[in-house]
User: Fold these one by one.
Assistant:
Number 1:
Amino acid sequence: MSTSGTVDRAAGAATAAAEREALGRFEAVIGLEVHAQLLTHAKIFCGCSTAFGAPPNANSCPVCLGMPGVLPVLNRRVVEFAIRLALATGCTVARSSRWARKNYFYPDLPKGYQISMYELPIATGGGVDIVVDGAAKRVGLTRIHMEEDAGKNIHDAHGDASLVDLNRAGVPLLEIVSEPDIRSIAEAGAYLRTLRALVQYLEICDGNMEEGSFRCDANVSIRPRGATALGVKVEIKNLNSFRAVEKALAHEIGRQAEVLGGGGTIVQETRLWDAEREETRAMRTKEHAHDYRYFPDPDLLPLVVDERWVAEIRGTLPELPAARRERFVAEYGLPVYDAEVLTARRDVADYFEAAVKSTAAEAGAKVAGKPPAGAAAEAETKPAKGAAKPTAKAVSNWVMSELLRVVREQRLDDALTITNWPVPPADLGRLVGLVEAATISGKIAKTVWSEMLASGKAPEAIVAEKGLVQVSDRGALESAVDGVLAANPDKVAEYRGGKTKLFGFFVGQVMKATDGAGNPQLVNDLLRAKLGGT
Amino acid sequence: MKITREEVRNVARLARLDLSADEEAAFAADLDQILTYVEMLDELDTGAVEPTAHVVELETPYRDDEVTNQPDADTLLAGAPARDGTHLKVPKIIE
Amino acid sequence: MDLANLTIAEAASKLRRGECSSVELTRAVLARAHAVEPRIHSFLARCDDTAVAAAADADARLARGGDANPLTGIPIALKDVIATRGVPTTAGSRILENFVPPYDATVTARLRTSGAVIVAKANCDEFAMGSSTENSAFAVTCNPWDVGRVPGGSSGGSATAVAAAECLGALGTDTGGSVRLPAAFCGVVGMKPTYGRVSRYGVVAYASSLDQVGPLTRDVRDCALLLGAIAGHDPLDSTSVDTPVPDYAAGLDAGVRGLRIGLPREYFVAGMQPEVERSVRAAVRTLEGLGAAVTEVSLPHTRYGIAAYYLIATAEASSNLARYDGVKYGRRSQGNGGLLEMYRRTRAEGFGREVKRRIMLGTYALSAGYYDAYYLKAQKVRTLIRRDFAAAFERCDVLVTPVAATTAFPIGARTADPLQMYLTDVCTIPVNLAGLPGLSLPCGFDGAGLPIGLQIIGAPFAEETVLRAAHAYEQATEWHRRRPQIGAT
């Protein structure tokens, strides 16, 4: 079945504004529900390990297997993590919250109920600040609560049975429910990325959607633009990546617009995202609406959290991404874009700051020899000969392009916190300093960088070994330029006659004459001056 | 009737219990009798009464975030009705 | 010397003086079981060999000396809802017919640590749901005083085993009266501690907010000893309290002078068997004679207890029993259908009638649209019942009531009408709803020679007061010395 024009247009919309246009007289109302798997050592209600990759059912015990007579006991760190996130999102932490049983039958649910929270969650209110197309917006949070994860069902090789692995049963989850404040796919993406960065900063979750430690379900409805009442909402499940979320939202919004536009009504239901066919479809098994029969879990007492503990946790919160981003702009003078990229991961932000602070020379000092000033200098390494304290922007450029490229290639960012950087931040900082002092050209720096990656040596050592100090001596370059012009009179004439493309040829010849060590900017300037304008 | 046959069927489905037609009828009668009996609770005005959450007053008990269990799937699954290695095996959902 | 008829205290004394060994004691009760089991069926799994081995270990420990634990070497039976590592634990149900737990319940572990000898698993109503032990999937336990009558339930086998001297003490569980009622019907002492006093870890859950493990013994001193061996905080049970366990036997002889006894008028129900009422009132006069002061009190919401209980307990049970699904352990039905059919047939075949009835009632009480009217309403009425008791305990130290309106009824007499069976628990249920300690001890016999029980209810964690009052009454009477003659028709 072909998708409608609305769907196509919505899917192809590049900005929130374009999305709005594609939707015509409707507006989308989206709420997102995220389940974040917590990085505790042990499960939420027993002493089994949460470590990934164990043999099936190795991480199990009578409690998480739901054997007769067993009882849950709450892992304190799960509550601590929940409070961390609650504080970081400005939620109200409930003094008393309550565990509830959510009752249903499934092989991956050993007790026949999930211990979750229902009427009294641990946190409410609060929100996540996002920026989309330059506009800031706060997406409210309805609630945050804790619950246990279920195990895993897989189909066996013969196809006539399912295999159940309960290692994951009992792993702690935070369920984070947003208000239906999201109005576009762009906002949805921003919300998810911001929330993911936040849980990573807080070191409570590694935020890996593909591996299932950060899951998202979406609630989507549309309504005539300007209306206040909510339309019928559809829940979308089976979203395994940010891209899937974006595509599924686009498709579903388009589908609903088409239905309503054609005079139909939306059925309240749960639809699954089919990543292959790129469409949402109603669930095949015609299940009667779940009646979860929630009631307070009698095996667990009300969770009472005192102010002192909350204050303690508040004191251990790291600088959060939004604050760090703003500080990067204010303190380092970085463009917002750079600040966003650098603070997307806490470890990258830490790396950047370490690199910027890595040399001792005062700002503006060009060449080694000027004594470093201030006590701060003691903590920093001495600048190499011909180095300068790198500007933040220059370091940012290098981190964003060269460093992150290697990080991605080597998949170092699979880890929650990168510790095995290919190049220490101080080395990268000093490399940039060498460029800024014009000791080496930017192009040469790339060569040095490759060598740093390969050998692990410091930039100064490589520059010295390979004699890569660039020629910035005006006199030497002038004579090289003169030599090249003299050797190519016909080309000079052609150039002066209008063939400006030949400029590159002259640059190449001068670089050849200087063994590639000519300061490109100077070479350029000199050539222009001597060739003259056309 | 306080509870219809249809409701009995629905409850049995929620509780994953197979009932024969005779059992359905018998349970309907039993539940009807009991539900009629418990109606006496409506005689009491409980508008201002808090439900009992717990009869015991305690500070929230916790455990430390420590792995204290050793893997022992073979022992724990020794009585499993069906296994495939250390996986539990169950019939597939028939759609 | 008839070792099997010793009390725990007497046996402990003899063991320490070397007048007998635990092996002798254990063999005596095992022989006794061998003789009487065909008539009364107290037991499911029997642990003869491991019991004798444990007895030998106990003897070695006693020989080493320096051990003051009164339970060392004492043969005890455990209700079959209490997990015992390596020994089948069925909860009286087909669905757990083949279940052998790889763990002990905490109470089991504590008894083992104290050196007690576990001789058998006692029969009970399936999943502790019942008042007569007629709902066990495996056997009907018979009252040793009259084998044509029920022993009470759901801890019937635990009570009969103590009454018939097949063990010196037993553990049962009490959710709505399931220790106190069989104790009364079988002429032994049975106690339900304050909720949270004894760990529930490893005890097959029926109604989590009501269940408690309790001792059944020949006399009150034994009850104090057995309670002391199992009580106390358990980090594996989030509902167990962390208050110290007193020496329950220490204050037993303090007497009841000045003790304020309340008699709740609502417990002397219309239609009580006259002999029951007479015996209970006579017992109260005995206590008065010993120095207690008696006043009538009112617990006005008593009659709503059964209705509230059968909504709360069944709701919790419907959820607790969802784990019996044929996936991880226990019975799975054969068949070629899919998952849904497996669930439905496994549970239909594995659960008995009463269990199904309660699961359905509980599921209904929690279901959408009915939660407020049933479950929530019942929890509010529960609060009213708790307030009744709290008010009474401002003026009284203990409350004294009958345990049941009648003595043991014939097997089969109340099985046709579930509601009629439920009404058996009218005097015991409110104590569970309020989480209070309650004890049953013999206070007489009716014309047919059937035991009559007296209930003593205390304030939260006032087990010592309850035991003291019970002991004073017991020592002023001879009821506890009577033994059933098994074998009489």
Number 2:
Amino acid sequence: MNKKIEKIGLKIGMSFAERSIGTNAIALSIKMKKPVYTTPLHHYCDLLREFYFYSVPLEIKKSDIGYLAICSLNEPIKVELGVIANLTAYKIINELKSSKISSNLPDKKDCLLNKKQLAILKLIAMGVPDKTIALEEGITINTVKYHKKSIFKKLEVECSAQAVIKCLKLNIMSIDQIDC
Amino acid sequence: MRLQPVEEILTSWRRCINSGLINSAAAASTYIGEDALQTALNEGKPLISLFDEIWRELENLTVNKNLVFLLTSTEGVLLKKSVAEN
């Protein structure tokens, strides 16, 4: 396969766009934003006439970030390989998504809440009003408000809903800890 | 594997013919410039390193020597190719 690839000149920097190399799975996948399977006869250019292609778009929030393709010489691509390509694309997207989320979040160490703040946030997540939180925690309503401000500041958020979401994302609090 | 509907293939062929693309084009004619390639490789860095990581796991699963995995940019520029060498 390596020799064949070298022979036809398939190397980094080669364009699979339709305007460059004609009809192929990657070009069609770009056009239609969906997985595409093409056989040698489908390919417009002679260069690809011995290959089978299966291309999968890599998309995050409906915008494409690239394409993953399997190329097979003189042999149809089996269903199992298509599944591997789909799963690989899924894994790449998921890893990228989680790395993007974590890079957008402040360092977990910097926003760890103390015991009291965490207890208050759990009550907030359950929809308990400030007055009741004060009663349950044995503090004044002003202290509840003070803790809420500190929580928002530490988490760099503006409201209770955002604070709860961020804590869940950062695994400071799990969904099971919220009793509704 | 489900093949691409013929109509979409034909429409693509029509576009190629109308644009005057010759079907004997060599791979070299499709290579993008060095500067554009460096930009594409820089932009695709996180994607390429993830692809490399996953490929290390995949390589052992892929026993077919006639296979190559390709990673392209959004424009269809080849950023990485990995050949099964088991």
